[in-house]
Amino acid sequence: MRNQPAIDMPDTLAKIVALAGAAQFLTDGAEQRQLANELVSMIEDIARNALDLEVNHV
Hints:
Blueprint: H1 9-23, H2 30-57
Helix pairs in contact: 1-2
């Protein structure tokens, strides 16, 4: 198993909260809905990566 950097869980969770907060306001028009979908995708990626790092680090 390769060495994984220690994850800063509070920082990761803060990023998830900030992205989710931004996404909730992007609902007016097709372009904003697309941006909201992209933000939600980023949220999922960050959360998934955080979980993967945490599981592999233990």
